[in-house]
Request: fold
Amino acid sequence: MRSWQDRYAASLSAAVAIAIVGQPLVSVLGALARQADPGRISSGLALVAVAYAGYLTLVRTAGPVVLGAADASWRLLSPLPRRTVLGRTALALLTVSVLGGLVLGVALVAVLGAPDQLSLRLAAALVLGLGAGLGGMAMGVLGQASPAWDGWLRALIAVIVVAAVVLAVLGAGPGRHLPAVVAGAPAGPVGVVAGCAAAVTALLVRRAWTALGRVPARAILAASVRAGRVAQAAVVLDPGMLTWVVEDNHWRGRTLRSRRWPVTGAWALAWQEARRLGRRPARLAVLAGAAALPALVVTAGLPQVAVALTPAGALAAAASVTSGVRRDDDNPALLRVLAVEPRAALAVRALPSALLGALWLDVAFAGLSAVGASPGGLWWLLGPACGPALAVAALRMARRRPVDHSMPVIDTPGGAIPTGPLLWALTGVDLALLGCAPALLALAVQPANPVPYLLAQALTGLGVLWGYIVLATRGGRRRTRTVKGVQLQ
Amino acid sequence: METAIITVRDVRVDLGGHTVFREVDLTAGPEEIVAVAGENGAGKSTLLRCLAGLQTPSGGQIRVLGGPPADTAGFWREVVSAGDEPAWYPGLSVREHVELVLSVHGGGRLSVESALSAFQLERRAELHPLTLSTGQRQRVSLAMALARPSRLLLLDEPERGLDADFRERLAGILREYAAQSGTIVMATHDIALAEACGARLVTLEAAR
Reply:
């Protein structure tokens, strides 16, 4: 039972929040009353579609109906009405989907612009956004209760991804002005579309509310266990643990088609990464699609985002094939059975990261070159030249210790900075910046003859890789760490 | 003249200010199986870790294969240890895990098919190890350890999770390994398994 003090505190908090964000929000919304650049609408819509596909994927991965450990253990399996038990969860899902929907709506207006009748267009976009947010969440709940609905949700995600690709292609080609027709549509039909979307959303939400009473307990329990592990990883701030939860959940229960090892000796360790990646085609497709994002954000008028996105994407691609080195670093029992020299193992395991990082960078550069944001010619060699440095960074990230929460917190005028998580986040990135320094310099200067920079980059990358492998394996593999409370050596 | 594979002389281990065991002597030669028994906390696993070079004793001397044990690739090419369940590589089936071991070593004592058959894993060969039960995962772990070439096998409670029928089968597999000039030291609570292997029983007593 909430007391009047609780209500007073909640009301006061809401009033303070409105007072703080109200004025900036009005300024941002007022700035939306403009004619959108027709050349950027396709790319902007493609980015919004990618964000929405990400939201739906997150909803599906999370559950979305989850319970805390105590409720999952006791109340869920009791004779209490299921909807009563899940009431608080439903409220949380509603809040998340409303917030997500509002962001989506504002993003839509930002992309399409509002040449006239700002309030009507803004309202229609917010209704569309709320419809997408709430409707997507409702489909997630229905998908948890029924495999058929889960199939529909997966199909919807696929359709949205395809739509994003089509919009991105339109944005880069002669059809870039086609979506401008949508932006210039009269406010009347836009309102009708928003009304239809609201009706469909209401139908989906109603069905989801009905389905909430018959979501199988096993589905809620499975999602709750996942959520519990995620929460534990978040509490101890150990994202490494989180990635293992996702990885192990993916493989548990799977039947694989065994294939012979085409290589022998330590090379088999590199092949293990290639085989794992080949068995996750969806992840491979996401990586490939993400290589187009830098070009997409440039055409959407956000070149400064592309500057950060390109190296981050290349590093993420390189880091996506380090499961073996992470596994052996967590628990070297399997590496001892294999009896491979630590230096040879680390060197061989740098290979998949170097190749994938280089390939991703080259595809991203090709995209940037196609939209005129990057020079062509010999610049494609920058990818292979950066490969070794990216591999070093990925290996260092894979081998980093969990976050050290005993590190001091530094008070700054901008707020307190916990150095433990900061150092953890920078581990790996530091070597990427050091190893790719010539390439970053070349991109900043854009010299007419890139060959000296390319040579410098290749030598720096190989030098950093050699130095890292030598230093990291100095003194054998005697490293002790604790995983899940068990001390390992 | 028989050359000792393992020689342990007057070894003592202290952990956290507490003596786990002291004055331990042990020898093991080729074609010999030694079963180390003892109550919980007697230091069986600690002794195996000392033999594997993963724990430095506080006193005494340990020699394995003619030298002090060391956690190096050269040492592990001769010695294989199966203790706590290893972490499995993501994306590989049971068969691929066994085959990976043989590919890295360039061959082994058993072929992939023989190892899967000996450990009754044929029908589970295409699954990821995380899909298996505890006992089945223990069999995969033992299959990988016994399929690869080695001279010394260190087993920490190999009976863990195994049913009674398979324990009998395991005894036969271990006898066969020893008959091929192998040496086995295992920590166990299953005296029947030790007897079925024909092992020499050594009882470790916790330090008072």
About this structure: The beta strands of chain A are 409-412, 415-418, 481-483, 486-488.
